[in-house]
Here is the input.
Amino acid sequence: MRKYTPKDNVQKKAYYTNRYHVVPSVPTFAVESDEVFAKQLEILKAKVAVKSAKIMLGQMIVEINAEDNFIALETLKNECDYAMLSEMSAVDYLAKNGNFEVFYQLLNLKDVKRMRVVCRVAKGQAVESVVPLYKSANFAEREMFDMFGIVSNNHPFMKRILMPDDWEGHPLLKTYPLQGDEFASWYEVDKIFGKDAREAIGPENRDQAKIERYDTKRFSRVGYEVPFGADISKGETKTEIEYSKTLLVDYTKNSGKQLDNRK
Amino acid sequence: MQQPNKLTPFFENLNFERDDNTMVINFGPQHPSAHGQLRLVLELDGEQVVKAYPDIGYLHRGIEKMAENMTYNEFLPTTDRLDYIASTSNNYAYAIAVEKLLGIEAPRRAQVIRTMLLELNRVISHLFFVATHALDVGAMSVFLYAFREREFAMDLMEDYCGARLTHSSVRIGGVPLDLPAGWMVNMRAFCDKVDYELEHTYNALLQENRIWKMRLENVGVLTPEDALSWGCTGPMLRGSGIAYDIRKEEPYELYSELDFDIPIADTNDSYGRYRLYMAEIKESTKMIRQLILKYDGTEPQLMAHAPRYISAPKEEIMTQNYALMQHFVLVTQGMRPPKGEVYVPTESPKGELGFYIKSEGEPYAYRLKCRAPSFFHTGLLQEILVGTYIADVVTIIGSTNIVFGEVDR
Here is the structure.
């Protein structure tokens, strides 16, 4: 029987895990251990409901409700000096919890502090765009939509950014295979020649090591050239072609040529 | 009129039949001064840009997806392909993020070598910037001179790690190799050479060059507010008068021990940014000179000692049973960092390069996000280009110093 592979998460898994293996965790600290963060968290708590807050590896991570993302970031920007949105994107937890984790990585240049605002977004749920606050979210939110399908409401130009506009599927989802899905493998063929041409053209061969022995349409070995499209499946004749002599270097002992005469 | 069909698409570069008298042109994706695969759709009113729409993704390789399906060590050479002008800074940004997650620190000698390589890569990248920027603007000779010096720098990289472009010269936990004999002598000579050429060639050719100043001054003006809002970092941010350098503010490796300045430019324009790049090359050579002195007297250990995550040195693997077993497990299964998430910013030559890694305790990262500075600088183009003239578009693209390997990832 074929081995069962879960379809909701096709990410590569460890092929072996010790049954006694205990996964350690990165140590986290209470927000109170850092004065600046504690003060900022108080300001934030006055505005929005904070689900959890901790400090991990020197950066504060605050979890809020997805509906509050705009107000939270507005507070942080205007009252806590988080002037820059360094990065924002999402993490796919659909297989585990049925939702995405959207994170906003913020930078406070004045106090040299970095924090992450995290919120959970259900499948199909949209988040409010933060472009009015941080213009850097313009591209980042488009990328998030492109990669995960999470729409940002009131974004000035909510379109795909890295993938083509007519692409189907969102590549960074855990359900999306690394090699691409059915749509991806026929994308060029469908677009250029139409779906009817699929059979005539055939699937793309991704085996980099594969060499078609009798392929005279694209490549032939030097010295064995035959007319275009000739059938050589019954055997091939060696042709004396002038340039083949220049390309094929004779490395036999008598020729005096060395394979590698570098220092 | 041409009859469009699927094989011969409609000639879409020019569109004259618009009501509002503007012309839409495609800039790229194969334009020589687009620095890669940037397609810029520009709406022009005469020669003035009314609307700019950067269309990216032509170099999208799904590196973040690949990262989820590769072990941590397997992924490291892939980071070379992000900002391929300064590969070591990508390797380092990734390695330091994983190291933070693991809670390990590279030994002193590795830190010295890493910092030196980072600064050498900064020089390589900045020389590349001034070369291509000048070439785009029309100063051909600067390109030739700058590439000559860059060639020496790449020779140094080649002497160290064997590669010229995709170095992979930093590993998680340290560096793979010690410096070869005589390398630092060459390095010092290179620093002298760069400093000399900086003064006598590049500055002599460009700094007070009338045409260069006319093309760059007051072109691509980026206010500090916009720079912050658009997420601009590195020379783009400092070119707008904000003195924020991660090496200084959030020091990593040996930067806290080094004596260097953060040059800023408050003219906010392309010329200021150009001056800033030149000043940064000088700071980099200054740092490399200090690092050469720091190398002597360090312990010869190159990789951190963390048997759970890092393989032992080769001699131990070949002589000790447990080291070999550990190495076998780490190579076949990959290291399993603790559960957690990390974002580590580093100052790459282009700006803030950071890796966000979410680990679930598996040998494969659950999510890896590469915060590439060029991605955000490309986003800026849609605003900064509006109102400029078509001739300045090339200057502004060159001035943002974007590399498409990391824009599209």
